[in-house]
Specification:
The chain has 112 residues and is α+β, with helices and mostly antiparallel strands. Helices cover 69% and strands 12% of the residues.
Amino acid sequence: MIPDDQLWSAIGDPTRRRMLDLLLADGVHTATTLSQQLPVTRQAVAKHLGVLDRVGLVRAVPAGREKRYQIDDVQLARAVAQLNSVGSAWDARLSRIKRLAEAIQRGAGQEA
């Protein structure tokens, strides 16, 4: 599975990750309710929500004059699957590096 650069760029921002945490915990928020729990303005929250919406991590549902945002479970599951795939690939690489280092160390011990 090839990682989606736009998705990871969106998740890479700590404010957006905190917003995702809040949405996961509470289910639904508006830009206003999120801004009350974050150290950024409502306008900044709205911009961050726009980024998350563009990559599909959140869905906006109109509610009067505001939009209610919630996590898109399918896209979040896709992101988790990508993260697991990347993690597995790095685990395999690190295991190979460890085996090489151990082989080098054993070889250096035999020369002494």
